[in-house]
Amino acid sequence: MKNSIPKYQQIHEALRSDIMNHVYEENAVFPTEKELMETYGASRTTIRNALESLRKDGLIESRRGVGTIVTTPRQPEILQSERMTDIVGAMFHYTMAEPGEETATEPLVDIVPVAAATAAALRLPVGTEVYRIRWLLSVGGVACRYMINFLPMNLTPDLDKRIRPQFPLYPFLLEEYGLEFTSATEEVKPIAANFMEARFLDVEEGKPLYKIMHTAYRGKDPLEYSITIANPDIFQLTLDIRRKE
User: Fold this and answer.
1) What is the pTM of this model?
2) 3-state SS of the chain?
3) What's the CA gap between 72 and 47, in Å, rounded?
4) What distance lies between CA 167 and its chain's CA centroid?
5) Model confidence pLDDT, tens digit, residues 85-127
6) Looking at residues 18-30, what average pLDDT do you find?
């Protein structure tokens, strides 16, 4: 399957994913053609084709005297209005009548420097190295969400050696490190599936998906930050809304 995908498109999707996941922040200087050739073991023509695709996506642009700059499209401004209701509860749930047990792929653990969004959530300096865990979760044999967790290395030493598959993260952190999850904040926004997300979740490119940005706390201190890409046909959000008194 991979051999049927042009290499420039594979590189385009990898770089696009890095931009959308804030590995490269808006207005940051993008790697040079030579650096990308070395990173991906690709020819200059292949790299230029990948970069041209990113330009068509509106994700990078060339600036005289500076180089290539990341130009992540801004989200539409949200209109503020007086709230007449309160949200008193939110629940993600599966739409299947009998979904069965949720399963996860073997977790992929590596160490990465945090970009601005993750650094802010974890209250760390930009560039601090953290553990990153990547999973693909399925229910009833159907892929439903792709999750990336970021955890501070000082809180979870040797995580890459101690992580266990098919074990919920927060019970694992409590059992292995004595770290107890107490609260969380979440931001949910719609996105369109890119090439890699479509492959992970077995949907068409451009399909509307959820992007869920989750920050977990132990008391007042950040414990973990995660990004989840979910298929709304399977993994739905329900809000419990009450009218204000």
Assistant:
1) 0.66
2) CHHHCCHHHHHHHHHHHHHHCCCCCCCCECCCHHHHHHHHCCCHHHHHHHHHHHHHCCCEEEECCCEEEECCCCCCCCCCCCCCEEEEEEEEEECCCCCCCEEECCCEEEEEECCHHHHHHHCCCCCCEEEEEEEEEEECCEEEEEEEEEEECCCCCCHHHHCCCCCCHHHHHHHHHCCCCCEEEEEEEEEECCHHHHHHHCCCCCCEEEEEEEEEEECCEEEEEEEEEECCCCEEEEEEEEECC
3) 19
4) 20
5) 555 566 666 676 666 777 888 889 999 888 777 888 899 888 8
6) 78
